[in-house]
Amino acid sequence: MSRPALLPSLSGYRIPSPGVLRTEVLAGLVVALALIPEAIAFSIIAGVDPKIGLYASFTMAVVIAFCGGRPAMISAATGAVALVVAPLAREYGVEYLVAAVVLGGVIQVALATAGVARLMRFLPRSVMVGFVNALAILIFIAQLPHLAGVPWAVYPLAAAGLAILVALPRLTTVVPAPLVAIVLLTAFTLIAGVTVPTVGDQGELPDALPVLGLPAVPFTVETLRIIAPYALGIALVGLLESMMTAKLVDDLTDTHSDKTREAWGQGIANVVTGFFGGMGGCAMIGQTMINVKSGARTRLSTFLAGSFLLVLVVALGELVGLIPMAALVAVMVMVSVSTFDWHSIRPAVLRRMPRSETTVMLSTVVVTVVTDNLAYGVGVGVLVAMVLFARRVAHLVEVTSTLDPDGTKVYRASGQLFFASSNDLVFSFDYANDPEHVVIDLSDAHIWDASTVAALDAITTKYAARGIEATVTGMNPDSRSRHERLAGYLSGGH
After folding, report:
1. CA 398 to CA 98: how far, in whole Å?
2. Is 42 within 8 Å of 82 (Cβ atoms)?
3. Which of 179, 371, 390, 407 could form a disulfide with 376 if both were Cys (CB 3.0 to 4.6 A apart)?
């Protein structure tokens, strides 16, 4: 089996026809306009100046356009990564955040090279649903501080923003509803002279191109100890959301993408973003859907989205600073609502869903919300899914016995034999009363691990201690190979 190519090829870089070029340019412009409010909002979630998120959105989009494995997918600063890095930025500052982004990108490249993208298919659906729901909840919770202790005018402004975001898409989708809400609310506050918190109050907006440089942190083991957990979180959460988004675009466009190259590209994009002072990011589900549904299918739209974003922000930075925070809160609340998988909590669905699946989803959500870390939630969700699956499969193992005419006792085991099921295997035999010859038939079973081999060793040893010959037969080639390699070498006496 050939290894997927990591380095970019020429495919996807062909000069498009005039019709395709027009579609890609317009799609890129619409996405750039939609990226501005979310990039600013995600910066605020992360606790950094808006320019940190805007720079990240620019560099992520431009780099992934060349290095990514999924054409037309948009990568930029995201809420998932913002939630991971927020505690680091709050406690240690922006420079440590930037260093964590660079290290997170390096980890992503290493994971891509190791083929981790192929492991994404082992993520249970219930974990993915829990991941999405937890992300939505955390985004919503992050908006609450902007609604506490603020002028009364913030509340009607936020309500008006929500009304626009709900109603406008039902009338037209030509212009992104978030952009319309922001423009109208900003215009109203300026014309009416309403004084409310603005984006400019949150920090300085960029007025120049990002500058390449190293993070201003001590290059010591202590720094590595501080940033490593957050870097791992950036890498895992970024890859998870990117792989999920890539699969979604594959389904929508009936095309296949190179997930290994996409993972590698995400790493390169985060390394570059960190060196340019950005907060890191990954694929964005919302903006990718805008891009794809606008008709974009090539890397050009992704590249232009990042380029247009920087031009708009640098040229219109003063105007962006006048945006009321109430407008961004409304946008992020709608992002939270649209991100949450409401179907997953419908009573009819919950009644039909196995309790184990619901338990996995809830454990993912609860751990993520309690720890404020998506990586922890996904890790616990996968662990719970594994334990519940092992418990369920373990109960499917059955041992029956018959006595042959020649006096031989035959035990037939069926099912999957691994650590969870083989522990009880030892107690399925009648050592005291069995005849001199016992056969253990595994024709309908499969040996998966050393625990099962050790259990079979223990069974034959118990019989031998009573002068009974026990023979294991019927193993398939894989089980036989594992048994022959390990049998007799797992006890302390060998």
Report:
1. 55
2. yes
3. 371
Q: Is 155 helix (H, G, I), strand (E, B) or coil?
A: helix
Query: Position 377: which residue type?
Result: G
Cα–Cα distances (Å) from 261 to 67, 243, 327, 332, in that order, read 7, 11, 37, 31
Joined tokens for residue 350: 């919950």
> Among all chains, which residue has been given the structure tokens 């990011």?
281
- Cα 269 from Cα 65, distance rounded (Å): 9
**Measuring CA to CA, how many Å separate 200 from each of 95, 146, 189, 322?**
21, 14, 14, 6
Q: Tell me the pLDDT band of 272, cut-offs 50, 70 and 90.
A: very high
Distance of CA 169 to the CA centre of its chain: 28
Task: Give the pLDDT band (50/70/90) at residue 15.
Answer: low
SS3 402: strand
Rounded Cα distance between 101 and 104, Å, is 5
Contact (Cβ atoms closer than 8 angstroms) between residue 397 and residue 415: yes
- Both tokens of 200, joined, read 């400019």
What is the tens place of the pLDDT at every residue in 61-98?
999 999 999 999 999 998 889 988 999 999 999 999 99
Residue ranges, CATH 3.30.750.24, the chain: 398-486
**486: which 2 tokens?**
């390990």
Q: Which of 379, 383, 378, 375 is nearest to 87 (CA)?
A: 375
Picking from 355, 347, 285, the residue whose alpha carbon sits closest to that of residue 126 is: 355
Tell me the C-alpha to C-alpha distance, in Å, between residue 71 and each of 8, 121, 293: 12, 21, 14
pLDDT digits (tens, 9 = 90+) for 428-456: 999 999 999 999 999 999 999 999 999 99
Enumerate the H helices of 147-210 as residue ranges.
Answer: 154-171, 177-192
Band (pLDDT 50/70/90 cuts) for residue 176 is confident
The token pair that represents 205 in the structure block:
């907006």
**How are the residues of the chain apportioned to helix, strand and coil, as percentages rounded to the nearest 5?**
65, 5, 25
The three-class DSSP label of residue 145 is: helix
φ, ψ (nearest 5 deg) of residue 173: -120, 15
The pLDDT > 90 percentage for the chain reads 47
Superfamily classification of domain 398-486: STAS domain (3.30.750.24)
Compute the distance between CA of residue 486 and CA of residue 494 in angstroms, rounded to an integer: 11
| Strand partners of residue 402 | 410
Sheet containing 409-417, strands listed edge to edge, beginning at the edge strand earlier in sequence: 398-403, 409-417, 437-447, 469-473
